[in-house]
Amino acid sequence: MAIRYRGTSFLLEPVDPSTVVIPESLSSEQREIARTAREFVTREVRPALEALEAHDWSIARRLIRRAGDLGLLGVEVPEAYGGLALDKVTATVIGQEMAGGAAFSITFSVDTGIGLLPIVYFGTREQKQRYLPSLVTGEKIVAYSLTEPGSGSDALGARTTARLSSDGRTYILNGTKQWTSNAGIADLFVLYAKIDGEHFTAFLVERSAPGVSIGPEENKMGLHGSSTAQVLLNDARVPVENVLHHPGKGHQVAFNTLNIGRFKLGAGCVGSCLRLLDIATRYAQERQQFGRPIASFALIRQKLAAMAARTYALQSMVYRIAGLMEDALGALDPTGDVGDEAARALAEYAVECSIAKVFGSEALSDVVDEAVQIHGGYGYMRGYEVERAYRDSRINRIFEGTNEINRLLIPDQLLRRARRGEIPVMETVRNALSGLQTASPPPDDPTGLGREQWLIDTWRNLFWMIAGLALQKRMATLEEEQEILAILGDLAIQIFALESAVARARRVHGSVAPEVAAVHLDLTRAYAASAVPRVEAWTRQAIDYLTSGDEQRRSTALLQKISALPGVDQISLGRRLADRVLAAGGWPLAEDRTASIV
């Protein structure tokens, strides 16, 4: 399958909506798989949550085995090793549905994502044959072990060492890995150490290997239903054939596995947002105050509308990225040794994966916070799902690389591509300035999204204006200008989010019932209206820092073209959306209310 467009190109040119994967384009097979996952969570996982919270890991193992029986573990594994060899969109659907399983969703996503997929993409044929079949069935469970007490986001600062034994048959590993999800139940670890203290390398380490032990369960704020512990290596012996990929190239495995993890985290955040909207809506409809349901109060209704709009943008971007990841990886044949090809393919959409992680975790933080607020005092009480969800959600902004690190990764990746000649930076900056100077009012649009498309184009130009100023004024110290780099990261995130929502709404226009298309339109408009003040504030901060005098006045005048746009009646828009959320009992685009389109 040909790649539709390369990573980060959303910052260079508009996307063709017809190329964007959206939830409404799911096949009947994908919808059936989604139902299977949903029923598994509802009937088997959720009744077991209390026992999981009490650390009964035998239940976790039983549920993983049951997921294997249902075919949910091997979706991305080649058929030659017992898997289903399905696409990334199908895996995304499953990840979204599994989020309803609270902390068990972490057990599942680690096992099937950052644990299993490094073997699929970087393992040798022999390694795949040895480990994948039992992982697909759930007989064995795998964990990903990268972080150390002294190195988190700075993965290459790891101190765990590996030295070759005198007979050349094993590596002897020493060190401590911290906060390893699934550590208490895993049979296998994708683990990193430096050969001779220098060459960062990935290893497949079996729990039963001599010298491997597991520390006690960590006492965490949330995610009590998933295992997290240290992996202790004391002269642990690992066969040389268990080196994953190549000695000294562990960074290719580690960083690209994190790309996978960041994207899958975004998919999980979608599922969590959808569930929380449903829970909050039902509670608002049932809870009586002052003689009527709190769902009748305008401020509660506005919260539900805002939760739905943020979720729409997130879901739109995640499915769009799923399509891109499939384009990049779908042509690979992972039955063989494809590590170098896989590294290039996974790196292609590193920026988009970081966007999914940052936007998804922060969207979920907003949605769960509002869900607790709607519950009032009950939202603060143990025994209510939103209380647990609130605690569980907080880690999402930390693991898979903190959101601060991921924000900085976005401009860093762009600069790397510019240095390789892949992005014509100065030409793009000149075109952006010209575009801002000659920008005319938004045109009429048959889909009703002319204003939103104009915003995307203008934000894209503002991004490059700020990038150009930063390169001109702070080139020598740019790596230290983290505030400006973070602003560029935030602008890129908002551009991708709104463009994904607009592409989805455009794509369904004329293909679904008018009343359904109207919901898409309102969700997109509501998200855009909420994002405008943020984009203006960030851009103004950058202009005030990077310019002065006449240059500052000129740059500010370009920014003020957004302020000059006719306003959006957000109150009426929110009321319409709230009506639709309440009528649906939660998510206003439930599957049975949406036609499937090609």
Would you give an account of this structure?
The longest helix is centred in the middle third of the chain and has 37 residues, at 250-286. A hairpin with a 2-residue loop joins β9 and β10. α1 (28-45) runs parallel beside α4 (88-98), α4 (88-98) crosses α8 and α17 (514-546) crosses α19. The chain has four domains: 9-141, Butyryl-Coa Dehydrogenase, subunit A, domain 1 (Orthogonal Bundle), CATH 1.10.540; 145-244, Butyryl-CoA Dehydrogenase, subunit A, domain 2; 250-397, Butyryl-CoA Dehydrogenase, subunit A, domain 3 (Up-down Bundle), CATH 1.20.140; 424-565, Butyryl-CoA Dehydrogenase, subunit A, domain 3 (Up-down Bundle), CATH 1.20.140.10. It has 598 residues and is of the alpha+beta class. The two termini are 17 Å apart. The chain has 19 helices and ten strands. Residues 1-5 and 592-598 have low confidence and may be disordered.
| Beta-strand segment tally | 10
The biggest beta sheet is recorded as: 8 strands, mixed
Distance between the termini: 17 Å
Mean pLDDT, to the nearest integer, reads: 95
As for the CATH topology of the largest domain, it is Butyryl-CoA Dehydrogenase, subunit A, domain 3
